[in-house]
Amino acid sequence: MTKQLKDMTWEEARAALETSRLGIIPTGSIEQHGPHLPVGTDFLIADCLAKRVAEKTDAIVTPTIPIGFASYHQDFEGTLSVTPEHLAAYYLDVANSLILYGVTHLLFINGHGGNAGALTSVCRDLRDRGIASAFVQWWDIAGGINEKWSMIGHGDINETSIMLAISGANVHLDRAATPENKWLTDEVQVTDLTVCKFGPGYVNSYFRTGDVSDTGDFLEYGHSATADYSTSPAGATAENGEEILSAVTAYILEFIEQFRKMNFEPAPVPSKE
Ligand SMILES: [Zn+2]
User: Fold this and answer.
1) Please, which of 81, 129, 239, 256 could form a disulfide with 70 given CB 3.0 to 4.6 Å?
2) 109 CA to middle of ligand 1, Å?
3) Cα(151) to centroid of ligand 1, in Å?
């Protein structure tokens, strides 16, 4: 089993950095997850995936960065948020701390969709410097492996299942139910954080989670409804959660093999003339 960075001495870290050029930075969030899940959900899932990946690779795995960008969840108590600009600068500083010691490949294991903007800007910066970088998100992976793991919403059955597997004592299945997305008018219903449905079409906007539901959890079907959106998180099981975690961990490990083969030149510097 490979140690995580926080458990190494500096001499062990030096030896690890001499044999591995791959850094892994998990990124989480502390944000409301409906009436049935703890606010640490996105932190705990990213942290768990990183631990499992750390056990199977020689990558340098940093501690999970706990707080992300989640101001749109702050209609519900307990949500913490860092502005995307601060977050991107912080992520980049952590990445640069590994690059200083020769890391050439940086993989972020992201537990929260709200961090994606900051991560994209970090990846852009790193790419231009010739550093390979990427971020993986479990919900982008799970549905492709098994259709029943497709994303249904915030605090949905699969996210609840994963939390039962990781931190069951803090999951309250008796408080879980299929959330109802709000109607903004008699004819306009929110179908995602940035989309609402009116008649046969969809209109784009930006909503806070308090605009979307009264309970904090909500359905995310965006421009279409294909999965079964009546599925209740009350049907979650730790067994299902463990299966998702195992499958996603295996996927990330397989991706890492490909990721190590990706090499980029620094972008040309514009001439000053
Ligand atoms: Zn979540």
Assistant:
1) 81
2) 13
3) 11
CA 229 – CA 207 distance, rounded (Å): 20
Collapsed DSSP state (helix, strand, coil) of residue 24: strand
Please tell me the CATH code under which domain 9-141+245-259 is placed: 3.40.50.10310
Partners of residue 246 on adjacent β-strands: none
Residue 1 pLDDT more than 60?
no
CA 68 to ligand 1 center in whole angstroms: 12
Domain spans in the chain, listed from the N-terminal domain onward:
9-141+245-259
102 alpha carbon to ligand 1 midpoint, in Å? 33
- How far apart are the CA of 182 and the centre of ligand 1, in A? 20
Does residue 165 surpass a pLDDT of 70? yes
CA 187 to centroid of ligand 1, rounded, Å = 29
Is pLDDT at 2 greater than 80 in this prediction? no
Give the mean pLDDT of 104-116.
Answer: 98
Mean pLDDT of 11-16: 96
- Give the pLDDT confidence score for residue 236 in this predicted structure: 97
What is the tens place of the pLDDT at every residue in 199-227? Answer: 999 999 999 999 999 999 999 998 887 78
